[in-house]
């Protein structure tokens, strides 16, 4: 395909563009049939498949002026790969649907695909299929499949007496979003964390093998996700703010925007940290921090009291 | 959830609505973990999984004034189930992502979900997960997983000397779309065929067991799909118009709109008929009609000559 550098989707047409996109997607050995047929065919070794799906909408989950196409690709893959991580599974295969305006540059789509593929390569997963069609705004629909070799870790297994533990950056993306929302571009570390999350991909299986009783990834906000664990498990969860070291960039942003930096940690999502419960502090693996405890009851408290700050993302 | 009958998505909120939606989705025995966790967990018996994904965009693939929410649900499921059918597989599990304006009525979403579930029930497949978020227009993202018990039937296996065969209604949906596009509502059989396709779900496995050398479902247009088979297989395909009985409603619509009714059959998609090649006429199963032949060469001809009518759907 020889297109000018400013070509749009309307110039390229669906089929020519798909063949360009697919070049970015190497296929793993488990992929018997990759993109290009009615369906992909995957070899499954474990007898179980985990599957999750997520939508990202331009203007709501990302802005093209706040993040590069590559960043958006990384994020779209990361938030899905993280869901498999949160089950204690290993992501193997993804599909990606892209609905986009006809005037979207082809270059944006190819850069998105390259970023998406780079993120998938971090965990050895293949992009095995997709769809491309026209819409008024960019909508990205990703489905991820994975393998679980033992029992998956659900949200519902937390028990009174368990400890609550966290691994991965938390609050950085929310801090970066606050910065971008005010028209700034620094602290750069936070902006980069928002644009391109770095989920702790190895930690899900480590947590599962260490005996995590429940696990979830923090996409909508730490307290919101703790609430999901509490609801699904029928327990109460208390988060201890003293357990967190507030990173310096969050202190700086808090001072700049007049916010308690702890609000980014407690209310922020999008970093895709992992939150899990373990039966005893000694079971908590290296790299995880104990940040709270599970008790009989219901709901989530912070330092023993109800929390009245922002607790997460509302989809409508 | 007690909402007024004219409640919108903004009134309902994401989590309350999801619990209402999920009630429409019974879970099969192969579903170890259904909707509500980070990912669904499925038992896989055959060692292989087939997976396909499709997007449907309001105003492009459907109009809410031309089809009920239930119809849109049936179609969204059908076009994905059909992709598994076209591999000779058995669909087992689907995810559905819905991006929608905040003012979309809750009733539309629930009726969509019910129609989607009804179509899945026709083949015994379960809706195991999904996502719901806000967008400017309705975008539906479906991914379907299935099992293949033997080698899947690809697009690439057609050989010179094979016969081309078709099963299922073909051209009806295109006729119905032509009717709706002119502001009419009859012939009702065609309009209904457009609103709610009836793919020949049992035929994919029958075709595979009968030794189909290649197979595809007709979603973009018969000649376009024949072209995909020819390209992937490195062969030429000729379609014989005399092999078709033109159904009476298509004759009527052709006369009404001044079109050759054969153009609906050759160019129309959306019925999700199955198109396949078999090594010999005697291998073609009951319910399939021989409509052409495979030869050495490339491309698609109609009655031995190039065809200059519409040959399918352009996505951009």
Automatic annotation (TrEMBL), chains A, B:
Q: In which pathway does it act?
A: Cofactor biosynthesis; thiamine diphosphate biosynthesis; thiamine diphosphate from thiamine phosphate: step 1/1
Sites binding substrate sit at 61, 270, 313
Instruction: Cite the EC number.
Output: 2.7.4.16
Q: What class of enzyme is it?
A: transferase
Q: Which residue intervals define the domain PurM-like C-terminal in the entry?
A: 159-250
> What's the family?
Belongs to the thiamine-monophosphate kinase family.
Q: What is this protein called?
A: Thiamine-monophosphate kinase
* Gene from which this protein is expressed: thiL
């Amino acid at each position: 395909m020889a297109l000018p550098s400013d070509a749009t989707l309307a110039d390229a047409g669906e089929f020519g563009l798909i063949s360009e996109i697919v070049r970015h997607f190497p296929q793993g050995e488990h992929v018997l049939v990759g993109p290009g047929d009615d369906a992909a065919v995957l070899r499954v070794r474990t007898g179980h498949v985990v599957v999750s799906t997520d939508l990202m909408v331009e203007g709501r989950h990302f802005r093209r002026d706040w993040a590069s196409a590559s960043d958006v690709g990384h994020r779209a893959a990361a938030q899905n790969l993280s869901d498999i991580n949160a089950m204690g599974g290993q992501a193997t295969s993804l599909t990606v649907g892209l609905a986009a305006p006809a005037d979207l540059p082809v270059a944006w789509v190819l850069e998105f695909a390259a970023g998406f593929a780079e993120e998938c390569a971090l965990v050895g997963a293949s992009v095995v299929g997709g769809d491309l069609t026209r819409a008024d705004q960019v909508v990205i629909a990703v489905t991820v499949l994975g393998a679980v070799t033992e029992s998956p870790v659900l949200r519902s297994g937390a028990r009174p007496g368990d400890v609550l533990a966290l691994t991965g950056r938390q609050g950085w993306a929310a801090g970066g979003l606050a910065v971008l929302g005010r028209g700034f571009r620094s602290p750069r570390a936070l902006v980069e964390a928002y644009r391109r999350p770095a989920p702790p991909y190895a930690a899900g299986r480590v947590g599962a093998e260490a005996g995590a009783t429940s696990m979830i990834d923090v996409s909508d906000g730490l307290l919101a996700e703790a609430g999901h664990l509490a609801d699904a498990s029928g327990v109460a969860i208390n988060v201890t703010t003293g357990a967190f070291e507030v990173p310096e960039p969050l202190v700086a942003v808090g001072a700049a925007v007049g916010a308690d930096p702890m609000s980014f940690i407690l209310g922020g999502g999008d970093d895709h940290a992992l939150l899990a419960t373990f039966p005893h502090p000694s079971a908590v693996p290296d790299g995880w921090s104990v940040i709270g405890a599970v008790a009989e009851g219901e709901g989530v408290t912070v330092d023993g009291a109800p929390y009245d700050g922002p607790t997460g993302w509302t989809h409508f």
